[in-house]
Every structure is written in structure tokens, then in C-alpha cells.
Design a protein that fits this description.
By secondary structure, the chain is α/β, with parallel strands linked by helices. It is built from six helices and eight strands, in the order E-H-E-H-H-E-E-H-E-H-E-E-E-H. The chain is 25% helix and 22% strand.
Length: 220
Amino acid sequence: MRRIIGGMFQSLDGVIQAPGGPSEDPTNGFPHGGWMFPVSDEAVGDAVGAFFAGPYDLLLGRRTYDIFAAYWPYVDGHAKPMGDAFTAANKYVLTRGAQPLAWANSHRLADMAAVAALKHSDGPDLLIQGSSTLYPALLAEGLLDQLKLYTLPVVLGTGKRLFGADTPPLTLRMTGHSVTPGGTVIATYEPAGAVGAGAFGNVDSPPERKRQRRMAEGSW
């Protein structure tokens, strides 16, 4: 059985939109495309290289696939080895649409049942880069094995976030972490079960009873 492993760049306030350049994803008027490069460092590049060092196939959402397919087959210079590797890899695209997937070695997946069947097949690990729309369903179905977050030292204030409203509640266990010289926190997480609850302690004071009443009335 394969593992499904995600990798994601995010800002300190959880924005994942268009880290790679101004034209990558300016939807909803996002003004900060390319935000990661001024605050990144060589160690981040080394960590990304290690992420893709072993055998892998790619698992992508349709929009990330479109971004990759328009870029990686055409790059030259220092990025060409990565472009060649992505072209050679099998690329599994979760999409309800019927648009052509013209990039070599691309395959369509219709739904999460198809993703689960792929995970249970023989082959290398399935790596996700970007493709934030995949995570709520993967987590809900228990299909994600590992998530590597690269949290860069910048606050953006606006933009798409990794975990949207459809993300199920769950606990994550950190299995590894490092901090680059430039301040990027690279942390690896694995799902660890349901969210628990606790409290510092309950105080039955008149102000607390009043606060509880106001919350119940919607006036707090």
C-alpha cells in the first residue's frame, strides 16, 4: 500500500495562495503572488529537494495540475531536472471535469473512492504539492498519512488558507521539525485521532454565570 504525503508552503497566518509567483493564482484579487521567495533560504530548497528525492507519483488537484502542466514541461536551466522528473512521474489528478490532461503520464481520478483504490495499489508514495482542496476530503476519509508544512516568516492577511470550512476536526502528532537559518519552520505531522477537550477549571462566580447567560442570549 502506498502512503499519501502532502507538502505545503504557508505564511504565519496560514495563507497558501500563490507562493511561486505573481501569475500563479491571482484569483480574488490576491496581491502577494511570489511571497515566499524574499523570505525563503537555501535550506528550504534543500528540504524540498529531499521531499522529492525518492521514487514518487504525484497526486494533484485540477488547478495545481493546470499550473504545473503550464510550467514544468517548459522550464529550462537549473529547474529543468525537476521539470523532467515531474514529466516522467505518474500524475493522478482528482477532477470531476472532462478537460484533457495532455501532460505525459497524467491520469484522471473521479472521486475519493478512486484515490483510496490508488492508495491501496502497488507503487511509490503519492506526493501532494499545493492542491489544498484535496486535504478536507483526504482527512475525512483517513487517507492522508503525513503532512509537511513549510511555515515561512511572513504575514499576508488575505488569501486562500490550507484548512477550509469543510476540514474535519482532528488531532495531529508532530513527528519531526527543524528551523532554517532564515526562520522557516519545517514541521512534519501525522493524523492522530479525534479532537479532545479539557478545561483549566470551572469557577461558579456571579460574573461567569452572567457571561454564560449573555452567550446563551447572543448578547455577549
